[in-house]
Each structure stands twice: as C-alpha cells, then as structure tokens.
Amino acid sequence: MNIIFKNLKKSINLTITLFKILLPLSIFIKILQLTNSIDYILGLFLPIAKITGISTELATVWITAMLTNIYGGFITLSSFAKNNVFTVADITVLATMILLAHTMFLETAILKKAGGKSLYIVLLRVGSAILVGSVFNFIFKTFNILNYPANIIWKSKSVNFTINEFIFSQIKSFFYIFFIIFLILTMMDIFEKIGVLKLINKLLNPLLALLGISDKGININLIALVLGISYGGAILIEESSSGELSTRDITYSIIFISLCHAIIEDSLLMLTIGANFIWITIGRFFYTIVFLIIFNKIYLKIINFSSIIKKV
C-alpha cells in the first residue's frame, strides 16, 4: 500500500509538471495553426530542409511535423498526395526525418525541464534528421532502392476543434498521462523487487558501457524507447530532480531519448504513409547507437584531457 500511495503522489506531481509545459505550448501551437502563422515560419526553414534533396512538398511536410506534431505533418502530406506521386524512397526519407525531429516545441520543453539545453537539443535533432535524410536519399537514388509508388493509406481527420473540444481533449490527456506514469512507476518498483531490472542491466551492460550509459540510466531510456519522450522525459525529470542521476547520465539519456523514442508506435504509424519499416526502424536505432559511441569516445577524451591540464 505504501508503494501505491507513494507512486500516486509521484504520478500526480509529475503529471502536473508535464502539463505546466504541455498546456501552454499546446495553446501556442493551436494559435499558430488558427492564425496560419506556420506558413510564414515554413518559408524560413525550407532552404535548410531541402539540403537533403527532398522535394519542396516533402520539406514542407517535415517542417510542419516539427512545428506541430506527426499528425500535423500527415495532414499536410495528404493534401500534397492528391496531386503528386511519391515513391517509397521519398516517403522513407521523409518518415526518418520526422521520427528524428518532430513536435519540437513540446518535446524540447520536456527535455529542457529534465536538464537539457534547448539549443543543443534542437541542433541535435534537426541536424541528425538532415544528416540521415541526406544519406538515405543519396543511397536510394544512387542504387535505385525503393523506387516505386508509396501506398499512403492514412486518412486526414477533422482538426478544427472547438474551444470546448480542445479543453476536453486536454483534460482527457491529463488523466491518460497520469495513469500511464503511475503504471510505469509501479511496474518499475515491482521489477526492482523481483530482480527484473538487475537482469536487464546485466544483459545490456556490454552495450551500455560502449554507449557510455550507466545502469541507472537504462530504465529511463527503455521507457522512452518504447513509450516516447513524454513518459521517458517524465521519469528523467523525477530521477534528475532527486539527484539519483549524474550530469553525464542525464546528458546521455537526453541524447538517446531525443534520437530514439517510441520506436514501435511511431514506426508503425509511418507505415500508414508508405514508409519502409526496416529502413526507418533499424536506420534510426543504428544511427543513435553510432552517434552515442562516437560522442562517448569524444567525451572521454575531453575528460582525460581536462584531468591532464589540471595536473599540469
């Protein structure tokens, strides 16, 4: 019973913390959509997005997904798909870029609350999306891979919510997030007591050492990997505020969560617009692993160099 009451209290506090971030930004994004302000912002980012070699239409879709969310990008794509034929290669590049960088206002704010720096998070995600998108686009065009029409089965739904519907959706989200966070915290306590967490840490320890992630950070990263930034970020906020995680653990977790989260749900969602599941899933996960390995080696060299300077 003590565990339940403890987790209920934690869940309420974490949900309130998240909603202090999510609600104002949701209202802000809604205002951007209603006033068509997104169209003006699009013009600023289009030249950057087109570095990857994707079309203006697909660049517009990606930027819309960054400024709003994945569904906002899908709505834009469905309007373009009426008069354009996109290949699976085109959509796979787009989907990968969206998966690496989407819902930037909300997700950046959550990771900032967990201890990240907004500018670095944005540069990491947008830069990664452009890099991986460019590489995929080059590979697909050079070797004529996935060069056949994409089957876009996702259908646009009405997004013209009334104020009452918007308020109701936020209240529903609050209770949904609260329930999921409570479930996560309770399951983590149960797994810890029966030794599941120790087993997971033991199995993943070789990979974790290579990536620079300690055993304290593995649970957070696994939650984010499966459930997404909101829930992984909520647990990261809780752990970082309690002092359980070192600055290094927080930094590495933020990098991992930024690049690779909701890998099943979001990847399956991309199938509805015709993306290739293997490329978007394995490609994103592989890039995240390689990035962290390189980052860890550079980080360790900087630490060693700093210690040498201090001794001198």
TrEMBL record:
Keywords of this protein's UniProt record, alphabetized?
Membrane, Transmembrane, Transmembrane helix
Does Nuclease show up as a keyword for this record?
no
- Regions crossing the membrane: 12-32, 85-106, 118-140, 166-188, 220-238, 250-271, 277-300
**Which stretches are annotated as coiled coil?**
none
Q: Quick check: keyword Transmembrane in the entry?
A: yes
Q: What is this protein called?
A: Nucleoside recognition protein
